[in-house]
Amino acid sequence: MLVLLFILFGGLAIGCAINVVAQRNPLYCAISLIGVFMSLACLYLMLAAPFIAAVQIVVYAGAIMVLVVFVIMLLNVEQEERRHFKMGILVPAGVVLAALLIAEVAFFISTVNPNPVLQQTDIGLTSSIGSNLFTSYLLPFEITSILLLMAIVGAMTLARRTGVSEQARVVPGAQVLAVSDVDLNASHDHQRLIETQTTTEAARLLEISGPRSNEERE
Amino acid sequence: MEPQLSWYLALSGLLFTIGVIGVVIKRNVIAMFMCIELMLNAVNLTFVAFASFFQDVTGQLFVFIVMTVAAAEAAVGLGIIIAIFRNRESLDVDDASILKL
After folding, report:
1. Could you tell me if A159 lies within 8 Å of chain B, comparing CB atoms?
2. For labelling alongside A29, which of A53, A128, A190, B56 has CA 20 to 30 A away?
3. A184 vs B: CB within 8 A
4. Considering only CA atoms, which of B19, B37, B94, B74 is closest in space to residue A19?
5. pLDDT above 90: residue A112
6. Distance from CA of A174 to the nearest CA of B (A)
7. d(CA A56, CA A62)
């Protein structure tokens, strides 16, 4: 029974992972990645780790993927164009090296380690993880919290829009103003509400120079 | 027959390899970011498998910390992606190959 579940969820994880790589539309990549996270959560449940499984769904499939999908939608990402690689000798070399690696791994897995048996335990329960996290592993926990604080500050610094007055409102659909469109020294004291469809129009209404063309930028 | 530890390790190795292939062949920054998440998850599976089979809670605590790092990485990484898009109006990594903005 457990073997069947392992094959089901393992196969689902691998299939979704291959789809992540194969898709050219980033949104489909993201949805396949959510499939990978879900099947991994089921595998964690089979490994007697219910807390990690719950956190996997809440943090990964919930928070992180929502952020990724939000950015994909915000930036209006286009499909990747098909690329042509010149490989030649690389293909047979890659096949040989991959076969070598797989043989090596199979050899070690089959010979070196006598397989331990999965027993009934309580190590995956929330109480066990919590008591360990706040006693023996308190220092890593605190360091992680500092890391999160740094991430908050870093994300705000990176994503902040400079040079445009706070009163200037760009309506969604304009997406993100390019830095080249924004005068860093501009100050707009007067309050105006602007409703536009495109970035160019927003820049014109804000009396800042329009977006440069690609030739100018080069 | 129960699933063995080696099965989980093999699955994890496969997922990690697919993630590496994705990072190498993808040219879209967001797609590369998602492949990195895939690799992190493959390593998490190894941690949980070892923790369960060897009756040690340390592996699961490390998975918890890896998830936190992944969340921080997502926030900062997507901030960088938005900054790159604002400067170059493109998400292709080849367009951002020089450090000068």
Report:
1. yes
2. A53
3. no
4. B19
5. no
6. 12
7. 8
The neighbouring-strand residues paired with B28 are: B92
> Complex ipTM above 0.90?
yes
Token digits of residue A114: 């006598």
Phi, psi of B92 (to 5 degrees): -75, 130
Q: How confident is the model at residue A182 (pLDDT cuts 50, 70, 90)?
A: low
B-interface mutation test, from A8, A25, A31, A36, most B Cβ less than 10 A away? A36
Residues B83/A158, Cβ–Cβ less than 8 Å: yes
Distance CA A18, CA A105 (A): 21
> pLDDT higher for A143 or A170?
A143
Q: How many CA atoms lie within 13 A of A99 on its CB side?
A: 6
pLDDT in tens, A2-50: 899 999 999 999 999 999 999 888 999 999 999 999 999 999 999 888 9
Please indicate if any CB of chain A lies within 8 Å of the CB of B90.
no
The whole-chain average pLDDT of chain A stands at: 78
Provide CB contacts within 8 A for A108, sequence distance 6+: none
Residue of A nearest to B62 (CA): A140
CB contact under 8 A, B41 and A37: yes
Spatial separation of the C-alpha atoms in residues B12 and A4, rounded to whole Å: 18
pTM, whole model, 2 decimals? Answer: 0.76
Q: Do B60 and A180 touch (CB under 8 A)?
A: no
Least confident of A19-23, A163-167, A189-193, B23-27: A189-193
Q: Which of A67, A71, A104, A145 best tests the B interface by mutation, with the highest count of B CBs <10 A?
A: A71
DSSP A123: T
Beta partners for residue B92, in sequence order: B28
Any B CB within 8 A of A102 CB:
no
- Cβ–Cβ under 8 Å, residues A122 and A49: no
